[in-house]
Predict the structure of Putative restriction endonuclease domain-containing protein.
Amino acid sequence: MSAFKPGSPFPTPLADPSLPTMYDLPSENPEEPGLPDQFHDWQPQLLSQTFKPKTVPIDQVLTAADLNIYYDSATTRYYKRPDWFAAVGVPRFVEGGRLSYVRWQEGRSPLVVVELLSPNTIEEDQGLTLRGQQPPSKWEVYEQILQVPYYVLFNRVDDTLQIFRLEDGFYQEQAESRLWIAELQIGLGLWRGRFADWERQWLRWYDSEGQWIPTEQEKRIQEQQRAELERQRADLAEQRAREAEQRTQALIERLKAAGIDPESM
């Protein structure tokens, strides 16, 4: 269950047809309390829109929110449902769309998982619950079973960020205030700005130059601005061409008035 390395091949197809696929496993849990609040809806959207690593083809990058991850083919009633995760080296789309993320079918674990802390899940997310129980906690699944290389916790109440890297098989909290994934040349940090008409601190991905990767709306605005700039440049060039033509015509008229044939010059 190693991390993605640039240039590594796609996972091999499911070898054992007796193992269940995502079509055989539940994709929803009707017993889960409540639905995601607005922040749990919008923050994953911002993460997905800005997770654009340059070292991996876009068709090999999957991002997902509230999608079941099945991690044990022997105990298929167990799964985890991260607030957001990204996997690389797997097809971005499958026919019909993914109903869940089945580890033994996909061939790779997620590269990074983000959990948005809530009062009813904060202890499990932070690895503070009793270990060795069944089913295992999120922390145990991400660290010991899936071995997710990067695990991020964000508390939107006080805008605190905790970053964990898998080192020698265990999560070690990082002192840095930002996450940098060198193999993807992409980083994650706190950005204050407006998204979904809400001004606040958000988690957002940035590029190797430290620039925030634009959202879909920002890209549309940038494209509109570029188109407007090109139109203004074209209008200016046309205006200058007309002015040049007018100056040339005025010179011709002056030469003719002076008895000089411009065509003979």
Notes: Residues 6-13 have pLDDT under 50 and may be disordered. The CA atoms of residues 102 and 173 lie 27 Å apart. The chain has five helices and eleven strands. The first strand starts at residue 61 and ends at 64.
